[in-house]
User: What shape does this take?
Amino acid sequence: MKKLVNCLFVIFFVSYTYSQNKINISKKPSWVNFQDYNKNPKIDEDEVIQGALNLLADYQINIFKQESYFRLVTKITDNAGIQSASNISANYDPLYQKLIFHSIKIIRDNKEINKLFPDHFQVIRRETNAENYLYDGSLSAILNMADVRNGDIIDCSYTIKGFNPIHKGKYSESFILNDYVPIGKINVSINTKNNLNYKTYNTTLQPKITAQNGYTNFNWMVEAPESSIYENNTPPSKIVMPTVIVSNYSTWKEVVKWANDIFTQPETLSTNIRKKLQEINTNYKTQGEKIKAILNFVQNDIRYLGLEYGIGSYKPNSPNKVFEQRYGDCKDKSLLMVKMLKSINIEAYPMLVNTLMKSTITNLPPSPSFFNHCVVKVIDNKKRELYYDPTLVKQGGTYKNTHFPNYEYGLVVKKNNAVFDTITSSSNNKIITKSEYIIKEINGSATLKLTTTYTNVEADQMRSFFENNGKKNIQKEYENYYASFHPKIKMVDPPTAHDYILRNEFEVTQSYSIDSIWKPMELKPGFISIDFTPFGLQDALYIPQNIENRKNDIALAYPVSREHLTNITLPSAWQIETDYDMISNDVFYYDYDISYGKNKNEIHLKNFLKIQKSSITKNEFTTYYNDIKKLEKSFGFSIFINNDSKGLFKWETPSFSIGFIVFLVLLAILVIIFIIIELRKSGSI
Assistant: This one.
């Protein structure tokens, strides 16, 4: 709780204030074209949410002057909108930008009320990504307006002067031509004296291009666009809104040249780095062992921390500095690793990726701004291409099988390179769960032994989980989880872990006693039963809701495979037929097997699931849904008997219960949380 409070304090409160700072005020720039708006646009009032309607969103950019003009006009339609509409906020980087307000006014009863008072502003520093150890030094100018009423129209405009000097006057940005809520008008206007590459997505709107006073103006304007519908679990790599993306960069080769210039560090490695390399050369003989040793050092001894002020958001610090201070962000750690490898004659390069856009990055106009992470490419002495993420920690495996996330495409920072590397993940991220039940008596207790083997990224995560949590907390987490399947379960001994680090497998063994494992059957009075669920598979399953009306693809955790082996020892003999089935489609593969060993009165169950792609496309919805319905018939397994123990054992493979459906719906939420965590983990270059 204390950690959460500290995190909220850093994120939402002021790390330091600039209350004495004065806000700059001037008339709007002469190059800006005034945009009119409709006070009563053709919008269904029932679609307006949170009591406010944006009448105008105006974005005008002058690339030559390095100025960005913004204007937002909002109409309050209900008292609920007063709170948010009363707060004016603009963000900028004081190291290279200047913020100038032009107008803040309320229009009430066709009269204008001035609300632009410099002394009423607060300039504060908010580090909204501090929980991910990233600090950008940006400031927020905030005005809390007084006397705001229902029915008011609030008109605010300002300009931010200055582009990040690391781009040397070049510009790139994306603009959304719609919203999930109604909007009266969107205007995007870009003035440039140089070439401008642009690309539109999910819209046929083309820019109006005009020339005046030595400038070429590109203008996109839409009025009362139809609101987009938000859908859960849409792949973050997919651009779903009407969008225009612009860039002054012409080719990816030009982007590589830009990156190569800022990643070039002419200084020689320090004495301390050379001592570390000598230590590695002494302790490790093969090239592969040395690669892994350097990776381990950069991952685990150089902590992740990004102080990304000004050009520091793109330009890495020198390896000598990073080594001495023992911290750095993704580009700092990647460059340090590259320099250390090159110093012992191992070919290595920084590589730019987008952790969320993945393959979509290759279809964007060229620009370094569209990357959010930096990793490393290594070519060993057998010309094998290997990829590593230095921001990860505690990774097992050898240099050849270290897990690399499924980033799909990367742009290698190598002189004259002009194409993306295609990266195919070699990890299957498999989890194998072995459940061994011994049923001691009818209507009595049981024991359960669980052995779970985690591989690849799953092993890396479990390794960190065990290192970062106390034994009691780990025991509680496991006990609470399995209590959702067997309410009267109790752990006999604390979990034991075995780390097979070279093959990157992490094994956890647990033992439980289950008091009264049998439960009455609701649909069969007088009978008791035990349900056996392959819970090792449940975290990989997803059942979409309202699939008939869905428009966007569905994101899946990928690559993922799960195997659950269940062995049930019964107190007496019974009869059971063997059974096997398999379901296969482009999205997932599933099979199950049921067999019975008469000699030991044992039932053997096997369930296997593999997710075969990262998303479900719209034309796969019906097949996926129908196959999930088939899967449910073999997913669980039950045995039941008369409560007086006079009947014969019987078995069935039950359909999903209502509780299980709820569980899967909750898993849909967990997938969203997983995407957000991946977003927060990604460092900026």
